[in-house]
Design the sequence.
């Protein structure tokens, strides 16, 4: 049997596996909030055990997970279409998304058990898988149909943007839990440094890809950090200034952007 004969069947099974992975991740996340292993769900842990982590956004910011899962479910349905099932790029994206979903389910388990150090490994697994999918989709590099942009590219932009922020928060949480002293440098100084690094990453993506969704996720997170840390002028002013800076970079990048080369998704 040649490759062309196998492709439709294997593409269909991969598409089903991708949608299953998305739904399973949503269910695991929901169950972890309803029945947390040690009595505290992720939000409660952030507000109690890890309440001193200064880079954690305000509680309302985590509502973005609803948007992320809506986007993933939309992608899961979109990639079931015959044209997408047989698209080699989409197949590679699906494998990477399945990897990200598995890593996220592992992360939820580790984090709710308060194994914060190990949870970083799972978080990095999510991050690397999403970076791979984002690059495969050529977000901001090629012109695609509006449907492909909405149902394939945008969900990954939002998901990757939030996981990029979450990775920094996860590392900070693990260090806080381990009672790391920061080599004598204050927690506020370290938080400002992390904010600068995160904003630099978002600015680079904005300059190179003019990705509105990705950049807006960072702005959303930074404003929420400012809200949570309003009692600390150094932090909230830095977060707001960087949020404004990212917005300016995005606007300038889109204004100077050359027309993209069209490609059939």
Sequence:
């Amino acid at each position: 049997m040649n490759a062309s004969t196998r492709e439709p069947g294997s593409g269909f099974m991969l598409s089903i596996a991708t949608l299953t992975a998305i739904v399973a991740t949503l269910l695991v996340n929901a169950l972890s909030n309803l029945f947390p292993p040690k009595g505290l769900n992720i939000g409660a842990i952030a507000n109690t055990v890890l309440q001193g982590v200064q880079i954690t956004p305000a509680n309302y910011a985590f509502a973005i997970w609803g948007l992320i899962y809506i986007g993933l479910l939309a992608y899961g349905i979109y990639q079931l279409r015959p044209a997408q099932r047989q698209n080699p790029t989409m197949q590679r994206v699906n494998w990477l998304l399945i990897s990200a979903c598995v890593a996220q389910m592992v992360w939820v388990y580790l984090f709710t058990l308060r194994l914060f150090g190990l949870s970083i490994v799972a978080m990095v697994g999510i991050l690397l898988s999403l970076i791979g999918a984002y690059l495969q989709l050529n977000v901001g590099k090629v012109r695609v149909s509006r449907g492909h942009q909405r149902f394939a590219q945008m969900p990954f932009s939002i998901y990757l943007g939030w996981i990029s922020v979450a990775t920094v928060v996860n590392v900070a949480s693990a260090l806080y839990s381990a009672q790391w002293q920061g080599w004598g440098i204050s927690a506020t100084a370290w938080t400002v440094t992390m904010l600068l690094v995160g904003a630099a990453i978002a600015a680079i993506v904005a300059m190179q890809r003019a990705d509105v969704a990705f950049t807006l996720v960072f702005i959303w997170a930074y404003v929420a950090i400012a809200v949570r840390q309003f009692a600390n002028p150094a932090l909230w002013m830095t977060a707001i200034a960087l949020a404004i800076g990212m917005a300016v970079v995005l606007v300038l990048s889109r204004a100077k952007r050359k027309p993209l080369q069209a490609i059939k998704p």
In short: Residues 3-262 form one domain. The radius of gyration is 19 Å.
